[in-house]
Amino acid sequence: MIKIFAIFFSFVFITNCSFNSNSRIWNDQKNEIAQNKNIVEIFDTKEVITKEFNPGISIDFSDTSSQNYKYNNFGSYDYKGGLDKIQGYRFSNFKSLDGLNSMPLFLNDGLVYFDKKGTLLRFDQNSKIIWKNNFYSKAEKKLNPILSLALDKNNLLIVDNISKIYSVNLNTGELNWSKNNPYPFNSQIKTHNESFFAIDYNNTLRCFKIVDGSECWSLATESSFTISNTDYSLVIIDNQVIFNNSIGDITAVDISSGLIIWQLPTQSSNIINQTYNFKISNLVSDGKSIFFSNNRNEFYSVDIKTGSLNWKNDISSNLTPIILDEFIITISEDGYLFIIQKDQGNILRINDVYSSYKPKHRKDIKPEGFLIASNKIFLTNNNGHLIVVNLKTGKIEQIKKIAREKISKPYIFNQNLYLVKNGTIIKYD
Question: Looking at the whole model, is its pTM more than 0.90?
């Protein structure tokens, strides 16, 4: 009986190990492990791509593409500015720069953000404060809450990393309602009809009613033994909410009932003990497939109807990929720009956008986020630099120093570019 179990375990283990058979670059290479059946690979070793590929080929992209908030599909923006600073929105400094991961809420007549004590601030177009309010106790303020913001009509919706959920009137700054969750939140907020959705640290997707914050339903997925330091994301497609959790599971849920439609585990069970170091990108969709990557050298395309794998490639990145025409664009954690065929997964071009940095400095530089506007890539880094890359050629056009430390990923709204650094949101013309 023990022998039978050992054979079965070995078969399952071997068939589930990845030997890069799904990699879509240099497909003519043979799998040497498969040629020798006496060799069993104990660890799945994947070589991170650290060299350019077809760097000189030119690829034409359209100037703009469709954008869909519910799909996390931000496409290409219209921004032809010269990165001239025109104003700043000031707030009290965060004790930790983790707050820079939270996206400001952009309005046609200003924006909404928060400070280190969780005070909400609504600014007008001239950076003047229209109102500011804090709905935390003295003890809660000392916890330095990090807020995630969303808007539904005139209702400002907030979830935070100390377990509060609340709604504020956008016009007056007054509290509509406030609730407490069993666990803190670390995710985007998505709205749909009369509900909104967020994911907490216990890997539970929760549905709340916008009108009063009461819970519609919740779905718990497998939890981990450690707290992840990455944000979770979700997309809403037709009647589904699709989300990721801290251990790499991708789950599709019926938006009305909260019942699972399909679930795709992407990591082995041992990641439950290692989630602090595991980072996954936001999910992005074109309406047919889900695209995402992680810092374990895996980039996925998954069918949204069945949860089956379309293709998988060896790219290490936790940045949100961008869909542009028939292409996927991403940047690896080592500073390489990848252009990928969306449907086939083939890598068409790789450019080194950190080539101007000396090796001794480069090892400490990590990308924070990027966007595409008017055939240019705007990439921010943890060293406070903004790099502008020509998307068509992959050539670096400009490196601009914004701060001495980490800055947020870039945002564009109404043809202005915004960057968050500690204490200030900078607006560029």
Answer: no
